[in-house]
Amino acid sequence: MSKHNALNRFGRSGNPAFRNHFNTNQTTTDDSVRNPSYQNHLHTNQSLSEGTMSLDGTVNKTGILLALCFGGAYFGWNAQALVLPAALIGFVIALFTIFRPKNSPYTAPAYAVVEGVLLGAITAVFEAMYPGIGIQAIGLTFGILATLLFCYKSGIVKPTENFRLMVVSATGGIAILYLVNIIMSLFGNSIGFIHSNGIGGIAFSLFVVAIASFNLVLDFDFIEEGSEVGLPKYMEWYGAFSLMVTLVWLYLEILRLLAKIRSR
Question: Which range marks the domain in which residue 104 is found?
Fold first, then answer.
């Protein structure tokens, strides 16, 4: 019996890209799937000859997406006017990928490039105001990624039911808060503490960074379980894409936090 039984009751991750995608297009009667509840989700049109999701494959594809993202960032650094178009295009690509994961081998690389342009342009703006902030944010992002990966693999941090419910709930609450703030901004108002560099604003940013970081743990768990149950090969790209979504969010929140601290 798989150790992931609890995952069937709650969402796999606060990252929406990971939810409800254990339903695949793969035909299998493999009795080696340890969690029998997943057997019902492994029916459809993909032949086993195309291969199944693997941990190494997902890691390799994550590396490819990161390389594409850095390439896009190099371009975006000198094209700051592309911030809004890149944000809108990236959002559309992300939504399309979430609802059509079979297309992730094509849309995930496109998302990585577009988000790279966005991050490069945004970082250039912040760098002009606070020299060195970009490399600090990059270092902290990958430092958190490495630390949480070690904690997950060593069992120090475990994605229990309560942990998952807490992270998913907090992520949803943050998303709603940001949405309300965007709507208010259309009428010339905003939720003050989101942008404030006071104690309250910094505390809020620290909380959001923590929740974004905890989403990485759930992402690791999804990728590991997806490899264990033998999801279709395209889910390697989908898993890498979903991890990128979390990393992009984490980087932006760290950049915002550092800017608040340095503006005091």
Answer: 51-262
